């Protein structure tokens, strides 16, 4: 089931789902790298229309923005970049920089004096308010602000930069020469180099405010949308520490560090970073007089709220509640309805962990709409839908609600929520047992392009919704016996969400469940048993259930029963209806396997009532199957047959292959049983029909490799052929049975006593 | 050149080692004095002024030597003689802070002394340039990036010498300093330890070591030379690590062996007493120190803190004027003046002076914290938070700043939020009752009474400074209708107050007596009840209640109701207020169940 993740609820770098770092005033200064970029711009301006081909010019223009925004890079790298788009220009840039660096201070000063020329004239090369124009003007301004010693320092820095670039290019050529040099000198050089390298690594140079902001917002949105593309936690932390070393007041870095620490589940550091961020934010809030006291109080409220979020994420619900209470109190005192809205949503998230509290949520949605917070409102609607789906509301109402919120999403282009909405629809259809619809929704999500792609080349982000949809897809394929396709999907999942990323648990569980089912079908119970631990680690309830199933299959009835009873009580407490019904079915199976089908009946009826109430069609039809089987055992095959006719349609339409096979097998059994009292002619007819059905069942079972079931079917067919006197067919079936029986000997369980 | 360099070290060690290697005991004070005088001279020659000052001060506190025992100056070696001219010139330049010039003329000198001065000049020149650079760096983000450019070269050269074992004690010290500046803490510690082994008398090396050691565990694993200097070092580091008891013990030993006149030791003791909040003792020691050394500026900020706490306005004003006359551009002076203004409730001016102190030395930790306090007084919480955060940035172990942050958020009515900060403060000072009481109060506000009780009890157990923990605990028990425990707490509280015999009016005394009177009354212990009721009458706010209770008791007694014998009477008000049979609980480790970082 798609869950609405807590992290979506609040993130101060985000308004209405859009991540952006705090944009301060422009603070930029001249560095040697910037000079090189300026030279490039100047050259581009000077080489008129004809000199550079249109293609090259386009490539250059594409290159410019990352150059202007990105961090400083070495000269050789810059050359390479320019060369890739336009070799001719790279050459002239190189010459200009060489002239400047090897010339005098005067050259640099002259260069800056000439820069402003590009604005003059009737038709200036650069428009003043364009991106490039702004950059140029910033640089000119920053340069003219420099004092004498600073100018000189800049010039020496430029020379240094140039020489380093030269050295780099020369180094490659020198390689062979160097290898022939005497050992000692090389050693010495290496020693020095190593110490220099160390430092180079430890501080890759200061970023200007703009560059730092760009870096932060990029990493933050990557963390949110596509974790695998962001820097690894360790290297990101290193970058942040570096940034903070140069400018301890850069509060956003602390927040990113908090997010980063969340990734690695480090409570201590993340608390520390979070509080540090808000301590710092309070300062900047107070400094900027625009909001005055208001801005300051605001950050206090959000500080408490975020602390609550943090505790909630680490599962400290009591602590989270205390923090939330604090946030609510402060927000109430200052009449901040928006903050209160956030608090309300969180209150729901916290309440969800203990009991259902949809009243809160309804309030939250209403208020959020009232205060014009579309993100919060539709997030609330989605939570509500999720909750209602579990509570057994009809699909049409849920779909209506989702449709309404979808309108909201498209209006405000909240692409993230659109994704969630579709993933949720997939999950809901799946819950209601409509595999076709679920399949269709999952496919739709996967073939949709994201509205806000982080990397221009990639159309989709790796968010939770995609993971959920892909997992459903894998399970759906596995159900239909397309194991190759399922494993293909899982392989894709593994690539997109590497094992240590935050959504990896989803596919891990899905993978193990599929493996478990296959092992059970195959009758490899020891294999299934070994998978149980893995499943338990990811989802304890599921794990216990599967354990019970394995025990049951291994004929350890009393243990299985004990486990199931415990699980039943627990699931009833936490109102996990889906699991309750599954457990009830297992319990019923236990009863009829221990030859007391009469006791199974009330249990099955209970399960049926529940699944009807919650409209879980998939489980309902499975219950009907069980019920019919119980009736068959009790000797009323006619009843069973009529019951089956009721259930067979949805099973054949939407059910898993295994269920289809079981249903057909059961139909055949009932037909045979009810044919006992018929006159011979009619009986033969009925038996023929049964054989047909058995063939169909056999096909289904073959799809999912259910050898045990196939064996039973074949045995049954052989008996039927025998009765009909078709010796040849009988012998064929008997031989098949013998083969399978050698492979999978049955241990004393009466063959017929199997659904 | 090569020949002489192999010979000379032998000579040098032969001449110097017998004097510089020092024994572990203090039996021979004359020897110690000789050593101190010698090292003072050596450090002065090398421009290590602070170490020189320290040694000289300590030497001054010992009795003077007769002429016959005076140490002849160490013999001049061949190398020294060669470098004499260059050294003399360079030292002159060095003294007028022309470091580059000094280094230039010392280049190529071989004697240890000249080499040290050469390297040291280069180091100082780099530092000076760094400071100058900071003013006009290219941009705000580059501020943190300004580095002492000389450090890397120095490190390479010194490490080569170090590997060749050509560094003497001073050289090692400089190498250590360079490593520390490059944030290579581990290597720096090793080198400093080596330096103390080679030249144990050089206080600078010990002091650097002090700054690098952050906890007791680290201290345990150091292999330090077994000399009398180690005692000074240990005492100093115990003070730094807030292990005040041990520090005081060490200093007392030092005084006992004959350093009683040392102003350094006296001041350190005063600081130690300040740290454990024994204000009276600290004050008297500081006053003594002022008499001995009236122009002393060091540690006067601590003194002013004490005067501030005791609200001794006139003394503080006198101190401020006095220091201002001596040198008004000293960090300590600014701090004292800041404290003075703060006491006069002129918080803006106080903040101004603390800012000035920070301009003089941005790493002066105390000023950040004090400035935070000032902003708190001015109700400027955001500025206060900023100041405290700065303090924490300078030193993460500054418990006062953490505590201050906690207080700020408490004022902003965020009790849960401030828990984190108080916990940090508590971690740093586990035995300080103030943090515990603050934690308890927060828990009480959050209605987590179990945790609150633990905190208060712990605060009492570690020795409550403000004597409020027990009352708060009692009130909590009262609230939870655990009357027995409440009564017990009140009894302990009263015992506590009477036993320390303070005259200070305790507001809660009447509350305690009133509760006890009621409690005994309920238990039908008439005698005790009436004693308490009589006590109640001594206070204004409970007088009427006390009288009423007395009347009731009298009435009930007259009715002939005998004190019920079956009623357990576990507690008696200590009539003589001597310690009686109240069971004393052991200090249990503070275990807050829901503690998360």
Automatic annotation (TrEMBL), chain A:
Residues 254-353, 458-490 form the Anaphase-promoting complex subunit domain. The keyword Iron does not apply. Its main location: cytoplasm. Signal peptide: none annotated. GO terms for biological process: anaphase-promoting complex-dependent catabolic process; cell division; positive regulation of mitotic metaphase/anaphase transition; protein K11-linked ubiquitination. Keywords: Cell cycle, Cell division, Cytoplasm, Cytoskeleton, Mitosis, Nucleus, Phosphoprotein, Repeat, TPR repeat, Ubl conjugation pathway. It comes from the Eukaryota. Pathway: Protein modification; protein ubiquitination. One of its GO terms (cellular component) is spindle. It is found in: Cytoplasm, Cytoskeleton, Spindle; Nucleus. Residues 30-168 form the Anaphase-promoting complex subunit 5 N-terminal domain. The mammalian APC/C is composed at least of 14 distinct subunits ANAPC1, ANAPC2, CDC27/APC3, ANAPC4, ANAPC5, CDC16/APC6, ANAPC7, CDC23/APC8, ANAPC10, ANAPC11, CDC26/APC12, ANAPC13, ANAPC15 and ANAPC16 that assemble into a complex of at least 19 chains with a combined molecular mass of around 1.2 MDa; APC/C interacts with FZR1 and FBXO5. Component of the anaphase promoting complex/cyclosome (APC/C), a cell cycle-regulated E3 ubiquitin ligase that controls progression through mitosis and the G1 phase of the cell cycle. The APC/C complex acts by mediating ubiquitination and subsequent degradation of target proteins: it mainly mediates the formation of 'Lys-11'-linked polyubiquitin chains and, to a lower extent, the formation of 'Lys-48'- and 'Lys-63'-linked polyubiquitin chains. The APC/C complex catalyzes assembly of branched 'Lys-11'-/'Lys-48'-linked branched ubiquitin chains on target proteins. Belongs to the APC5 family. This is Anaphase-promoting complex subunit 5. The lineage of its organism: Eukaryota, Metazoa, Chordata, Craniata, Vertebrata.
TrEMBL record, chain B:
It holds the Pfam family TPR_11. Transmembrane segments: none annotated. Coiled coil: none annotated. The keyword Nucleotide-binding does not apply. Pathway: Protein modification; protein ubiquitination. Belongs to the APC8/CDC23 family. The mammalian APC/C is composed at least of 14 distinct subunits ANAPC1, ANAPC2, CDC27/APC3, ANAPC4, ANAPC5, CDC16/APC6, ANAPC7, CDC23/APC8, ANAPC10, ANAPC11, CDC26/APC12, ANAPC13, ANAPC15 and ANAPC16 that assemble into a complex of at least 19 chains with a combined molecular mass of around 1.2 MDa; APC/C interacts with FZR1 and FBXO5. Interacts with FBXO43; the interaction is direct. This is Cell division cycle protein 23 homolog. The gene is CDC23.
